[in-house]
Write a structure and sequence with these properties.
The chain contains three helices and 15 strands. It is α+β, with helices and mostly antiparallel strands. The protein folds into two domains: 60-132; 135-297, no CATH class. It comes from Niastella caeni.
């Protein structure tokens, strides 16, 4: 009989605890979802649709030469008079953290970025995506024994878009004065930073890099060995929304005698960057320079 009385006395107390716990859970403020690509750098978050997401008038912005010789800059069309902080990722975007002004001339073009705005007095980040139009190459491992010898340019961060340049072959390299290209595209046209002068065989009309020819012509010197690398910068001009403004890209060339000699960490980094590119995501925290890894054999 005592046992039944204890149960009866405890039951209302247990029900009260359950009610309080449920009520607390129902009224608790949910933690905002962290949408940053780099949570270690950006600890704020974005929740839902944000009216303060930076708007630059289009999802693709083209670098253009300014008539007065000044750097080409763009500002957000919204958030006028609203105080806050602007953020961007991955690396490569020259953005003023106070007003969101982007200096295109000092930014890496051909890259997909996310831009965030944190309104003063809040902890929410309103995020938008912006592509700086231009050209890049996809991080890749090229196996020469499998006839994988050409690095193809990618335009406006879209790996599936057709080239805006004409097709060309091995007769298409700049001359000693870096004359080359045509009305659509011109690659490696600046003698002061000639990639072909450094034995990187960039075709002047198409932007295609012949890796096999580069290696054969002495890109890494006469005694190439595993892990040898070179960073090479060259300029290009495109007859698109940029109106042939001079742009630049740096590529990192790396050599290994066979795929199995390539460090696992490098192979994984290349795979991740390629997957992100094909999924139209940010390529990496540091997308430039793209890694073009030359491997002689497939095993």
């Amino acid at each position: 009989m005592k046992s039944k009385q204890c149960i009866c006395l405890l039951l209302p107390f247990v029900l009260l605890l359950v009610f309080v716990a449920c009520n607390k859970a129902d009224n608790a403020k949910a933690e905002p979802e962290n949408t940053s690509e780099n949570a270690n750098t950006f600890t704020t978050s974005s929740t839902g649709q944000c009216p303060n997401a930076p708007n630059y008038g289009d999802s693709i912005i083209y670098l253009q030469t300014q008539s007065n010789g000044a750097d080409h800059k763009v500002q957000p069309l919204n958030n006028t008079g609203i105080q806050g902080t602007y953020l961007s990722w991955p690396e490569g975007l020259d953005i003023n953290k106070n007003n969101g002004t982007i200096n295109l001339a000092k930014s890496e073009t051909g890259v997909r970025y996310k831009i965030g705005f944190v309104k003063k007095g809040t902890q929410d980040t309103c995020i938008s995506q912006l592509i700086l139009a231009g050209m890049t190459y996809m991080d890749s491992i090229y196996v020469l024994s499998q006839h994988d010898t050409l690095a193809m340019p990618i335009f406006n961060a879209d790996p599936n878009a057709p080239s805006i340049c004409d097709v060309s072959d091995d007769t298409d390299y700049p001359d000693s004065l870096n004359n080359g290209g045509n009305n659509k595209c011109a690659f490696d046209d600046d003698p002061s930073e000639s990639a072909n002068g450094k034995k990187l065989r960039v075709r002047s009309k198409s932007g295609v890099i012949n890796l096999k020819k580069s290696l054969r012509d002495g890109l890494f010197g006469p005694n190439v060995k595993n892990g040898d690398s070179k960073r090479i910068k060259f300029s290009y001009r495109l007859n698109d929304g940029s109106k042939k403004a001079k742009q630049q890209i740096t590529v990192e060339m790396i050599y290994y005698d066979k795929v199995s000699s390539i460090p696992a960490s490098l192979q994984q980094e290349v795979r991740t960057k390629r997957q992100n590119m094909f999924e139209y995501r940010l390529v990496a925290e540091k997308p430039r320079p793209p890694f073009l890894v030359i491997a002689g054999l497939s095993y």
